[in-house]
Amino acid sequence: MMRSLWTAASGMTAQQTNVDVISHNLANVNTTAFKKERLEFQSLLYQTMRRATMDQATMVQGPTNLQVGLGVRPIATSRVFEMGNLERTDNQFDFAINGPGFFMVQTDLDTVAYSRDGNFRLSPMEGGGLMLVTSEGLPILGIDGEFIEFGEELNILTMAVSDDGTILFTSPEGEMVDEGLQIAMVQFPNVQGLEAIGRNLFLATAASGEAMLESDGETTVTSRLMQGMLESSNVNLAEEMVRLIVAQRAYEVNSRVIQASDEMLQQANQLRR
Asked: DSSP state, 3?
């Protein structure tokens, strides 16, 4: 069987996966704080037909190897964490992170996830008071790892948040009062190691390293929290469309290689003495 059949088939499979990644980017062009992905490829094994070795009879060194590659495969999806545009919403509970930080989100009793989606809401608590949550109702965590809760005595309409996430309220006397609440922002040694779990959330892994609190001074660069703004998706429509065309043409070329190989085999089968 001709190698080109299987080699081209691996190329078609890889380009199909590439189109899947591009379509995911395009589908999330309006998703808050979405980070686009790029598929990475790796060549498969090579079949060595002749090595560049010394000819013992003539003592002449062969200059090159004779090798034939056996195709390609997808190896990884790298996520581009460059910032999207900051869009003003003037919503008191919308927040954008200007910098490399992430919010901390409690997904269940034992799991903390991380997100750059600052589209927050207020959720009533049992016994009175309000809690800061995501648009799905997941609690946002403060720097002490606890939920950010507001007592009934606080006037939410006067809430303001400083660049480092400190929450302030205006007293009846017109003074800014710090109630000891601060929205946590964290960073990671290797953001490419984060595991995306959907819903604009990421999980820390051994590859990403442990989360480092910016408020503890564990990071060299600090982020700024922008109230009344949201970070848009960093997907570039023009760039994704160009990548889609390239992937489509690559898929088409590989399919033509299979057709050409099939015609060559057909001609070989029709040989007569």
From this structure: H
Total length of the chain: 273
Distances (CA, A) of 221 to 97, 217, 258: 13, 9, 52
Tell me, what DSSP letter sits at residue 100? S
The string of pLDDT tens digits covering residues 153-179 is: 888 888 999 999 999 998 887 788 888
Structure tokens at 148: 């950010």
Pick from 190, 185, 187, 186: which is nearest to 78 by CA?
190
C-alpha span between 244 and 34 (Å, rounded)? 19
pLDDT in tens, 55-84: 666 666 677 888 888 899 999 999 999 999
Q: To which residue do tokens 């309220």 refer?
A: 169
Rg of the Cα atoms in the chain: 28
Look at residues 268, 246, 236, 267 and name the one whose alpha carbon lies nearest to residue 83: 236
Helices (H), the chain: 3-27, 237-269
Rounded to whole angstroms, how far apart are CA atoms 165 and 216?
A: 13
Q: Is the pLDDT of residue 38 over 80?
A: yes
| Structural contact between residues 131 and 122, judged by C-beta atoms closer than 8 angstroms | yes
Q: Which two tokens stand for residue 76?
A: 């990884």
What 3-state class would DSSP assign to 76? strand
Q: Which candidate, 33, 145, 42, 161, places its Cα nearest to that of 99?
A: 33
The CA-based angle 98-102-103, given to 5 degrees, is 110
Rounded CA gap, 43 and 45, in Å? 7
